[in-house]
Structures are given as C-alpha cells and as structure tokens.
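Practice problem 4.
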C-alpha cells in the first residue's frame, strides 16, 4: 500500500514539474531535419531548416561564402553567431561538397507552408 502511495506521489510531482517547466525534448538535436545542406550552394531557406539557424545566420552563411567557398565544415565558426556549440548541433546536417538534400522530417511541422483555403 505504501509503495502505491509513493508511486502516486512521484507521478503527481512529475506531472506538476512537467506542467511548470515543460516536457524535456524527446529527440536528439538536429533530428527535425533529414539530409544535408551544402553550405557552398544551399539557399537561405534551406539553411534555415538547420536547428538553431534562423534567417540572420542563414544569410550570414551565404554572405561569408561570397568571399571564398567553405573548404571544411569547421569553417562555419568564422560566421558571426555560429560557435563551436551550434556547429556541433548542425554538424550532421552540413557538408561542403555534393548536393543539398535537406528537408524537414515528417514529424516537424513546416511553419512556412501556406494554408490551402
């Protein structure tokens, strides 16, 4: 009987904490996209699909490559706003060679999609 009370109390506390602070992310960083973005030819829209990259950082990536193409993924740290932490977050989804194949995963809602009404 005491075990059931402890379990119920623990679940109630967990539910309260989840309500107050939100649920913890259930997926790994970068899991919301599939494929890769070639930083030497991807568009701003494609770069914005990368986790942690918004319009300003995507435009900064494009501006930086106008000076010279990226030779390595690590060159992205030269872009204002991209540090080692963000680079680690997007590393699996960026490349400097080949085709850009990045797209939202099936579980991510595409906010830019217009309603068909």
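Answer key:
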């Amino acid at each position: 009987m005491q075990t059931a009370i402890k379990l119920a109390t623990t679940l109630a506390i967990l539910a309260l904490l989840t309500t107050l602070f939100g649920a913890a992310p259930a997926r790994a960083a970068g899991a919301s996209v599939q494929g890769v973005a070639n930083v030497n030819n991807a568009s701003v829209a494609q770069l914005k699909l990368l986790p942690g990259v918004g319009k300003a950082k995507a435009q900064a990536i494009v501006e930086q490559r106008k000076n010279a193409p990226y030779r390595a993924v690590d060159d992205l740290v030269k872009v204002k706003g991209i540090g080692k932490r963000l680079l680690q977050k997007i590393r699996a989804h960026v490349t400097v060679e080949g085709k850009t194949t990045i797209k939202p995963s099936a579980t991510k809602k595409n906010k830019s999609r217009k309603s068909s009404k």
